[in-house]
Amino acid sequence: ESQGKVSLINLNDNTVEGLENFEAGWFSAQYHPEACPGPHDAEPLFDRFMELADRGV
Questions:
Q1: 2-6, 29-33, 51-55: which range is least confident on average?
Q2: What is the spatial distance between Cα 19 and Cα 36, in angstroms, rounded to a whole number?
Q3: CA distance 20 to 8
Q4: What is the tens place of the pLDDT at every residue in 9-52?
Q5: Which residues of 13-33 are buried (b: 16+ CB within 10 A; e: fewer)?
Q6: What is d(CA 23, CA 12) in angstroms, rounded to the nearest whole number?
Q7: Quick one: pLDDT at residue 19?
């Protein structure tokens, strides 16, 4: 069984907001990255999604 790792932490209260295991083909984000990002704040999440889609995961 694949283990994940913490990938995102809230800067205000140190809660976990993201997990990932790229080799297993999954990641998560516990917020709405598209809701109000800065210029490129959410770009890494969408880049990961596209990489997984390209791999056919």
A1: 29-33
A2: 21
A3: 9
A4: 998 999 999 999 988 888 988 877 666 656 667 788 888 889 88
A5: eeeebbbbeeeeeebebeeeb
A6: 30
A7: 93
How far, rounded to the nearest angstrom, does the alpha carbon of residue 36 sit from its chain's CA centroid?
Answer: 16
SS3 31: coil
Cα(56)–Cα(53) distance, integer angstroms:
5
Question: What is d(CA 18, CA 9) in angstroms, rounded to the nearest whole number?
Answer: 7
H helices then E strands: how many in the chain? 1, 3
For residue 26, give the DSSP letter: E
Give the chain's domain count. Answer: 1
Domain hosting 11: range is: 5-55
